[in-house]
Specification:
Layout lengths: L16 H9 L3 E4 L11 E3 L4 E8 L9 E7 L14 E7 L1 E7 L6 E6 L3 E4 L4 E6 L6 E7 L1 H8 L2 H6 L11
Parallel strand pairs: 1-3
Antiparallel strand pairs: 2-3, 3-4, 4-10, 5-8, 5-10, 6-7, 6-9
Helix pairs in contact: 1-2
Length: 173
């Protein structure tokens, strides 16, 4: 995990904690009121996730967003890196079929399959990993999150990605 820059109070027009996070991701960011066909958006290698990706920020480009989306592509027969995070996430599968494993620290993995047009949510702060179930085609999905609000509220990447709290009222494994 990358270390975060030291947080200081931002002056008007300076980058928010979420903007700094976006910069560290080193993938394209589309900022606009309208986005074309998300099935055709350019995606580039996404080091942290292990697939290909691009962020989508809807709204006025000079205003801090409360939510954000991303498009992710997993190459044939590959998987993304395991991850957990302190923000909510909904996923809609645009193309392909695969599976996702979800688990808590030291817990048993639960795996479910999905396909094009599937919609599912990742439990808050639970480990998860997505797998491409096709050996011959990439899969593509869009994730919608409240990550900007969380980053801009806590200003701490370690809190967002390495928090040990388990929301067992939402997911017990």
């Amino acid at each position: 995990m990358q270390s975060q820059p030291a947080y200081t109070q931002l002056a008007y027009g300076e980058k928010t904690s979420f903007d700094q996070f976006l910069d560290s991701e080193e993938i394209p960011v589309v900022r606009n009121f309208v986005v074309g066909d998300i099935r055709k958006l350019e995606v580039t290698p996404w080091r942290r996730r292990g697939g290909l990706g691009c962020y989508i920020i809807l709204g006025h480009p000079k205003e801090a967003p409360n939510s954000a989306a991303y498009v992710c592509e997993i190459p044939p027969g590959k998987s993304l890196q395991p991850q957990k995070q302190m923000f909510e996430e909904m996923i809609f599968v645009l193309k392909g079929r695969g599976a996702t494993s979800v688990w808590l620290d030291n817990g048993k993995k639960q795996t479910f399959e999905w396909q094009e047009r599937s919609l599912f949510s990742i439990p808050l702060n639970a480990w998860h990993q997505h797998f491409n179930g096709q050996g011959d085609e990439s899969i593509r999905f869009i994730g919608y999150t409240n990550a900007p609000s969380v980053f801009n509220l806590y200003h701490n990447w370690d809190f967002v990605f390495n928090n040990s709290y388990q929301f067992t009222d939402r997911f017990r494994g």
